[in-house]
Amino acid sequence: MKTFYVLNGPNLNRLGKREPDIYGNETLENVEQRISQLASENEATVIFRQSNHEGDLIDWIHEAEHASGIILNPGAFTHYSYAIRDAIASVPVSVVEVHISNVHKREPFRHTSVISPVTTGQIVGFGLKGYELALQSFL
Asked: How far apart are CA 22 and CA 16, in angstroms?
């Protein structure tokens, strides 16, 4: 059975409350339910994690080195965390970077990802559907 990790960075625990005009009203729990259902329908399992701390994400990326894939929304770490970038580069597993909003239509500092050069792909601007698209890309 395939196992996938869904890792979420800072402030994603605030989905449904944080800037609903940008991120919508659904919660991270809603994402987990939908992804779990999709995985189950495809005889896969998913491990969900969220942290506001960079080191936790790095540890989980290392832990996932034998997984079938990682779906990562690094939040603000996208733009400056070379440590997360290096963690991704250190593991032999594909990573799809997901962003709920279209970061390329937002503030200029959000236009650059230091993570994307070491990911398999990047999904932006499709809301929470981006997580499903990422899982479907692995399936």
From this structure: 10
Spot the catalytic one: 5, 23, 66, 111. 23
Angle at 34 between CA 118 and CA 132, to 5 degrees: 35
Domains, the chain, with CATH or none: 2-138 (3.40.50.9100)
Residue 23 a catalytic site member: yes
Q: Could you tell me if residue 29 is left (phi over 0), alpha (psi between -120 and 50 degrees) or otherwise beta?
A: alpha
- Active-site residue among 5, 53, 99, 104? 99
Please state the pTM of the whole predicted model: 0.92
Across the range 47-57, mean pLDDT stands at 98
